[in-house]
């Protein structure tokens, strides 16, 4: 995406957290944030940015995270400065700082989050446990265990004691970074710190006192949280995803020693892991153990079972009768447990029936069942349906049109993935006009198209020699105007580069070179 330079006015740069560093490296790409001391008077970029309460800023940060849009964070920061600036002093509350750091960390903008941390300190605001926890989340998301440990040490150095959430994030961060031994040692460290605090509380020490404590019945000590079932679930989630099933035994033994019980979430993690490995018999054993331990299954449990039924591997397909029987049996079992399938359960059924069994009739039957229950289809369900229609030979565009008309008439909720698949599907089906019309609707409604969908539109326009339309599309994307006035979503896997290489191969000229989407940010050492 191209971020056009505003101007070279120093007041502008001192006021913005988003800076375009194109002058540093012409081959680089991502926008970065710069936090500076505020000027005595905070200028506005536009009257629309004036706000009178922090709730609107918080909502804007929430939208920024949802849309993964760094520009919304810039706008929120501008508004925060204007709201809290008074006589040249800034008193932005710690909660807003923490939310900003959390948003940036969740978007993997770790360098920017640390810039906010430094700005807080410069303005006399001390980080809290929430601040440090948010930074650790960013380290976990960016797989940076070295920085994670530095943040942990810095937190302890200012005498802030971690809670169970902070411990769990640290453990997950190490495990996610393939530091399995260190992660499990961290789990032991958490347990040891708690056990030692118990001893200190009892004014005793040594093995005799440790042996006399019933850890299973003890609770947390202030400043030293007891590991919980949530801690257990976090650990086995990562181990299962990493395929480190050989470490389950020691973790289970640890849980047994300290009286940490399995809950339905624990079993769901284990069942999901078994199903992904195509080990249905192990998943069934977990279900039996749940029943023996009187752990009631939830909707997610049955959804996992549905997933196993409809996503069978090895080329084995259920007959139509078997599919109907499986649906009836599972829904009846859910009813026996007093559970009603949610929209995600129905989405799993429909997706499996369409994607793996080509059974549109059964999927339509489930949609009718949902209608009788007053359950509206989700964006996921609509996406599964259009994917099925577009996958037919030839693509069933009439069915897609009918579905889209129904969605518009009922004002049903659809998401960016749905729009992207629609644009992509229409383009591949040689319906460039329909694809462009959807892009106009997205632009009107503030939605951001993806590079893959735009690439498919470019291909079909070129195939049909609609060069003027293609030139307009390229200009809109380059300048973030018209169809792409809200930017383009998704920078991974060289998608932007592929789009630009394709249009240049078609002989379409760009107005300017060196778009930010094709540059790499110059990184610096982050200070804690």
TrEMBL record:
Residues 1-55 are annotated as: Disordered. Residues 1-16 have a biased composition (Low complexity). Keywords: Repeat. PROSITE patterns: PPR (PS51375). It comes from Patellaria atrata CBS 101060. PPR repeats lie at residues 93-127, 263-297, 342-377, 415-449. Gene3D superfamilies: Tetratricopeptide repeat domain (1.25.40.10). Residues 17-31, 43-55 have a biased composition (Polar residues). This is Pentatricopeptide repeat-containing protein. It comes from the Eukaryota.
């Amino acid at each position: 995406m191209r971020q056009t330079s505003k101007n070279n006015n120093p007041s502008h740069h001192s006021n913005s957290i988003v800076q375009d560093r194109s002058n540093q490296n012409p081959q680089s790409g991502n926008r970065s944030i710069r936090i500076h001391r505020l000027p005595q008077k905070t200028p506005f970029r536009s009257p629309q940015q004036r706000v009178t309460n922090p709730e609107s800023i918080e909502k804007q940060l929430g939208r920024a995270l949802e849309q993964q849009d760094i520009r919304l964070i810039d706008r929120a920061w501008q508004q925060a400065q204007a709201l809290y600036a008074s006589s040249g002093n800034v008193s932005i509350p710690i909660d807003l700082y923490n939310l900003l750091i959390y948003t940036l960390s969740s978007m993997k903008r770790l360098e920017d989050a640390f810039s906010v941390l430094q700005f807080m300190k410069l303005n006399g605001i001390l980080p809290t446990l929430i601040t440090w926890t948010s930074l650790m989340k960013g380290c976990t998301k960016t797989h940076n265990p070295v920085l994670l440990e530095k943040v942990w040490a810095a937190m302890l150095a200012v005498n802030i004691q971690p809670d169970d959430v902070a411990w769990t994030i640290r453990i997950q961060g190490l495990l996610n970074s393939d530091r399995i031994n260190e992660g499990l040692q961290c789990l032991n460290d958490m347990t040891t710190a708690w056990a030692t605090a118990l001893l200190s509380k009892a004014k005793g020490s040594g093995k005799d006192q440790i042996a006399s404590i019933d850890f299973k019945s003890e609770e947390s000590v202030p400043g030293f949280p007891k590991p919980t079932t949530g801690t257990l679930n976090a650990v086995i989630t990562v181990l299962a995803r990493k395929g480190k099933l050989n470490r389950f035994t020691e973790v289970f033994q640890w849980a047994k020693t300290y009286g940490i019980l399995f809950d339905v979430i624990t079993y769901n993690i284990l069942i999901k892991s078994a199903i992904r490995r195509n080990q249905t018999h192990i998943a069934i054993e977990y279900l039996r153990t749940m029943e023996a331990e009187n752990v009631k299954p939830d909707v997610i449990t049955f959804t996992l079972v549905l997933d196993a039924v409809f996503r069978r591997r090895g080329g084995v397909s259920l007959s139509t009768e078997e599919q109907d029987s499986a649906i009836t049996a599972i829904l009846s079992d859910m009813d026996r447990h007093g559970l009603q399938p949610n929209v995600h359960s129905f989405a799993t059924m429909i997706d499996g029936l369409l994607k793996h069994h080509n059974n549109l009739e059964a999927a339509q039957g489930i949609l009718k069942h949902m209608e009788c229950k007053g359950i509206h289809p989700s964006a996921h369900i609509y996406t599964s349906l259009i994917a099925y229609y577009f996958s037919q030979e030839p693509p069933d565009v009439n069915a897609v049109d009918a579905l889209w008309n129904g969605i518009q008439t009922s004002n049903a909720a659809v998401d960016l993935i749905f729009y992207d698949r629609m644009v992509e599907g229409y383009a591949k089906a040689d319906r460039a006009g329909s694809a462009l019309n959807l892009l106009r609707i997205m632009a009107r409604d503030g939605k951001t198209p993806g590079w893959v969908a735009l690439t498919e539109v470019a291909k079909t326009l070129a195939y049909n020699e609609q060069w003027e339309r293609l030139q307009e599309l390229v200009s809109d994307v380059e300048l973030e105007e018209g169809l792409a006035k809200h930017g383009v979503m998704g920078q991974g896997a060289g998608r932007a580069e592929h789009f630009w290489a394709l249009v240049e191969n078609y002989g379409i000229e760009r107005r300017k070179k060196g778009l930010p989407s094709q540059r790499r940010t110059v990184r610096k050492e982050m200070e804690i």
